[in-house]
Every structure is written in C-alpha cells, then in structure tokens.
Write a structure and sequence with these properties.
Helices cover about 35% and strands about 15% of the residues. β7 and β8 form a beta hairpin. The protein has ten helices and ten strands.
Length: about 300
C-alpha cells in the first residue's frame, strides 16, 4: 500500500497557486505577471519558479512605475529580475501623463495611483496581453474579497462585479472574446500571515524597507507616518519626526504609510502580525480611505 502524503496548509496553498499558474500558461497565449516589487509579487516569482523551472517563465514581469516608488523597491526589482534571468517590462506613468495630456495630481500628498490605470491599460494593449497575473489577496480589502481568481475585464479593461463567472472547486474559465483580458490572482486565498509564513519557509529575500529602520516621517492628521520624500508638498505646519518604522505594503511613497515597529527579522514580523488589530491596507494605504468604495471604483475603471 502506498504511503499517504500529508500536506500542511502552506503546501496546500502553494499547490493551488502553482496549479493556477500552470492553468494560465495552458489557457492563454500572452500572459504577463504584474510585478510591484512588494512581498506578494515576490512570492509569486518563487511560485513561478516552482511551476516552470528549469524552463523560462511563460510570461514577462511587468512593472507600472509611477515615479513615486520607494527607491529600495526599484533597486530590488531590477536585482531580482536580473537574478531570475527573466524579461522585465517597465512602463512609466509620467510618460502616460505626457502622451495622454493627463493632469498631474496636486495637494500635499500627490498620489499618481489612479493614473496607473491608464498606463496599465496601455501596456496591455501594446503587448496584447490576454491575462495579467497579480498578487492581490482577498483579505486585503473588501473589493478584492469579492473578486474571483479568474476575473474577466471587458475590452475597456473594466471590471463588472455583477458579471463574474462561477468558480467551482479548481475549475477556472479563461475563455474570452477578442479585446477582453483576464486578471488572475493565484494567491487570492492567502492571508498576509500566510505570505509571511511562506517567505520564512522558503527563505525568500525582500527589500530592506519591510524591516525596522530609522526614517524621517511626516505626521499626518490621522496620526499615521508617511516617509519623507521629494514628492510630498509640505509646508511649515507639517511635523517631521524620526521614527523606527517598517512598511507592511510598498505602494507609492505619497500614499503608503509606515508603521512603528522594532521588527528586524521575519520572525519578529510574524509576531507583530499575530498581535495586529488593523488590516494591512487599513493601517497603511491612504488611497483606500478616500471613499467607502475607493478600491472597487478603481477596479471598475481597470485598476489592478
């Protein structure tokens, strides 16, 4: 009698994600992996290695660079793509602003996040990508919680929550009409803690920005700490402080707050998360707090 094989919960999540990545390779002609340089997309590259090595990835990495990213992330992005030996496509929001005649955002914290949608849709059209793999997870935010793993977008890149397809067990439907594309989220069923446990188990390297370090920060009216950067339009009334912080997410420097922490290792971060009472995006993302439906509105318009 064969010896039964027991999988722990990380093995099961990993197996599901690898299955989804191979479904993408089998069902689509021109997929791409949307790579932000954050922990979730870095974990996706490890999963892609397990799914496709010793061969090459059947998709390039694509980064939409807003020009407001943390420099640590840009440096890590280039280093990781080189070490993987995979193709990296970078398209810049500032180029989109110029070619489309868009308006630069104003205010103290001029986030280009909403403008990323234009650049993303342009790069999808430029390379005729029919599937874009993302690192979104259901536990991040309520709009992401109700989006399916294979999420169809129309020929304008728009998502309609009322037109989602059923997903029974592990059956994923990638059939689309010409001009449509699919956003695919292989780690949708993972939590923030799952990702960190996986990073620990796989000994995955991350940008230093995730670990506690001293940083000059602006104190926001909400009490949140925004890392000081050249992209902020501050005045004499703003309070600048030095704090020991780390980042739970790595979006734009204009809209991603740090959290005070002494967590200098992955073990420390996991302990932090076990005690955390605020969600990852709730603790850090200013753009999600602009309205009750901020993320869903962006997704409806073609956002990640």
């Amino acid at each position: 009698m064969p010896t039964p094989i027991y999988l722990d919960y990380l093995d099961r999540l990993e197996a599901e994600a690898i299955h989804i990545l191979r479904e993408i390779a089998g069902q689509f002609e021109r997929p791409a992996l949307l790579f932000s340089g954050g922990k979730d997309s870095i974990a996706l590259t490890r999963l892609a290695e397990k799914a496709f090595r010793p061969g090459k990835f059947p998709f390039p990495l694509v980064h939409i660079d807003t020009g407001h990213n943390f420099q640590e992330i840009i440096d890590f992005r280039d280093s990781l793509a080189a070490s993987l030996g995979e193709k990296l496509i970078v398209r810049k929001v500032e180029d989109t602003i110029r070619t489309r005649g868009l308006h630069e955002p104003g205010g103290k914290y001029p986030s280009r996040n909403p403008l990323q949608t234009y650049t993303l849709l342009d790069v999808i059209e430029e390379f005729e990508f029919d599937a874009c793999i993302g690192g979104a997870r259901r536990d991040e935010e309520k709009a992401r919680a109700k989006e399916r793993i294979f999420s169809v977008r129309d020929d304008f890149g728009q998502w309609d929550p009322k037109r989602q397809r059923p997903e029974l067990w592990n059956i994923y439907n990638g059939r689309i009409q010409k001009g449509e594309n699919v956003r695919v989220f292989p780690i949708s069923n993972w939590t923030e803690l799952d990702v960190w446990n996986y990073i620990q188990r796989e000994n995955i390297k991350l940008p230093d920005i995730y670990f506690a370090h001293e940083r000059q920060c602006v104190v926001l009216p909400s009490g949140q700490l925004l890392g000081l950067s050249e992209h902020l339009n501050l005045d004499d009334t703003d309070e600048i402080v030095s704090r020991r912080v780390r980042f739970r997410t790595v979006g734009d420097s204009t809209c991603t707050a740090a959290v005070e922490s002494d967590a200098a290792s992955i073990d420390d971060i996991i302990q932090d998360l076990l005690l955390a009472k605020v969600s990852e995006r709730g603790a850090t993302r200013l753009d999600d707090n602009l309205s009750e439906t901020g993320m869903e509105d962006r997704k409806r318009n073609g956002y990640f």
